[in-house]
Amino acid sequence: MVRGFVTLATGNIIYYRMAANLLASFKIHNPGVPFAIICDRTNEYTDMFDDVVLLEKANGNYIDKLSLLIKSPYDESIFIEPDCLIYRNLDFFWDLLSHESDCSSFGWNDGGLKRWFGTEEVRARLFELISELDENMVVPLFNPGYIFIRKGSKCKKMYEDCLDVAEKISKDSLLSQYSPLSAGGKLRDDPIFSIAMGMNGFICHSEPKKSKCIALPSKYTINKIDIIEGGLDVTDKNGRKFDDCALLHFSTRKALEEGLYLWQTILLFLHKKNCKLYKILNNKVFCTVCELFRKAKKTIKLLLNKN
Question: Does this model's pTM top 0.90?
Fold first, then answer.
């Protein structure tokens, strides 16, 4: 049995650059572990990966991500979104996820239906379109930025269910316009994965904070960050501390444009080039500068919106 990690990049070259940054941070802390990319073409960035899987027909939308269920080159895979950076060894991910079900993630095994289909009218339409669903079904709620997949007939069945669910939603006038299901007029992969997991009896690891995958870094105060030597400690807005975090998921284009991501990727580049300058830049002072940059940018934006 071969285990490995996998990411996805199709369309805009920016996704390939992010995937390469993810890979660089991963390899520092997980040497020797295979990492694949599923993509729509080869280029200088895909050459960095251990394995490359080309999609015959990329769509540039949620369908590409659904293909993870059947396209991974490994028997067991953990998918990580390209807009993530890694801060420690991830071997423990296998222990947390591989015992749950053939498709799993870090999340809650309840609440998916209410989260994605919050009104009675919407849920009634969903149950009408998808006969396998009902109010009592366990539909997980999770962040699809990191997903465990065990290749086989069960995940193939889930893939087919995902396509069926997506088609039914996209063709329905009520559901296709329902904002939790779509972003910018495009169907989201999150609810599709959740529904299909529920239909196939798949569950999540029920203590997601054990994974210490920090999403939307602007919501946290960073106490320690060291992408080269390893280490990420943060405090959330409620004062809760999370030490020795494994993964930072920037989650949005806005977060990627802020100073923290740029600073971290510069450190990765300098380290790869064996340039000792990264030791000078890799300190709390520059972390503070990035935080001040983010706050100043937010303040300026608020002032401009008021005017």
Answer: no
